[in-house]
Write a structure and sequence with these properties.
Blueprint lengths: L28 E5 L2 H8 L4 E8 L2 E8 L2 E7 L4 H16 E2 L4 E2 L7 E10 L9 E9 L15 H11 L9 E4 L2 H4 L7 E7 L20 H6 L2 E2 L2 E7 L2 H11 L2 E11 L4 E2 L3 H16 L4
Parallel strand pairs: 1-4, 1-7, 7-13, 8-10, 10-12
Antiparallel strand pairs: 2-3, 3-4, 5-6, 7-12, 8-9, 8-13, 11-12, 13-14
Helix pairs in contact: 2-6
Length: 290
């Protein structure tokens, strides 16, 4: 089937619509970060940089680190942007830009998120590293795709019951990390269940001027237990990353620099340093992945 111009959108130079990338500019290993400025914080460690492309909040640099070709791309904040980035990353390797058809042989990418997050467990301290074994999406993105086969529906229903969420909030979706990539981040990382929220303030239990509809939500999440595992942290992209990666046949893992602890009320005194340490550790581990 030939994809219509309104569905598979290319720019005048032949690049993919939002990311402004050509297929040859993307490596098979991809690091995603939220902040466009963080891209250069990663690539400053590279031996060489081949390409730099910047459009809207999507900033991409491709280069080589310790012999491994890697692309680093900023996604901005939220799973709405993850929907754009991951569909277009997949298109770059699995759609023929000339014929506008899906390729017969598909390519799988390795995608590693390096981001910040807040712990909801008092014993996971600020400035720690956490790898997300499982992600829970409160954003509804995956429900727009045919995705039941990759979701843990039992987990979702138990969580919904435990949190006493009203029906209008919808059913959270639950997706696991790629086990192969996960195995590379055993040492010096906490492991846990990451909740991906659709916002930074009320969805994560923060109050400035507006009251919350469910003021006990974070406390209930803290006490949820599923197969002797607990919810550990909150952020805004991981569930979308895991869901779309699994559906599209890519491997993904999310690494979190814990810069806030919601249980103790602490915030990192030097979050930039914590993220920098995570970047260096992640790059050295990524360089060994085959």
């Amino acid at each position: 089937m030939t994809l219509k111009p309104s569905e598979f959108i290319l720019n005048e130079d032949g690049s993919i619509y939002h990311l402004n990338l050509l297929p040859n500019q993307l490596a098979s290993t991809v690091i995603t970060v939220g902040d466009p400025d963080r891209v250069s914080h990663v690539t400053k460690h590279f031996d060489t940089i081949e390409h730099k492309v910047h459009k809207r909040e999507f900033h991409t640099q491709t280069g080589v680190y310790k012999g491994k070709r890697i692309s680093v791309i900023s996604t901005g904040i939220g799973t709405d942007n993850i929907d754009i980035v991951f569909n277009e990353l997949d298109a770059l390797v699995n759609i023929d830009f000339k014929t506008r058809k899906v390729k017969d042989t598909l390519t799988s990418l390795d995608i590693i998120r390096i981001g910040t997050s807040g712990s909801i467990q008092a014993d996971i301290p600020i400035d720690a590293f956490l790898v997300s074994e499982t992600a829970v999406g409160f954003d509804s993105l995956l429900h727009f795709y045919k995705s039941e086969e990759i979701q843990d529906i039992k987990f979702s229903k138990l969580l919904l019951e435990h949190l006493i969420l009203p029906r209008e909030n919808g059913l959270p979706y639950v997706v696991n990390a790629d086990v192969t990539l996960l195995s590379h981040f055993d040492k010096d990382y906490f492991k846990g269940i990451t909740v991906t929220n659709c916002g930074f303030y009320a969805p994560q239990g923060r109050v400035l001027r507006l009251p919350l509809s469910n003021p006990n939500l974070n406390d209930r999440m803290t006490h949820f237990n599923y197969k002797d595992r607990r919810i550990t942290n909150l952020e805004m992209e991981t569930a979308g990353i895991y869901g779309l990666s699994k559906l599209l046949g890519h491997r993904a893992v999310s690494l979190n620099a814990i810069v806030a602890n919601r249980a103790t009320g602490e915030f990192s005194k030097d979050p930039t340093r914590t993220v920098e340490k995570l970047i260096i550790d992640a790059l050295n581990k990524i360089a060994t992945i085959e």
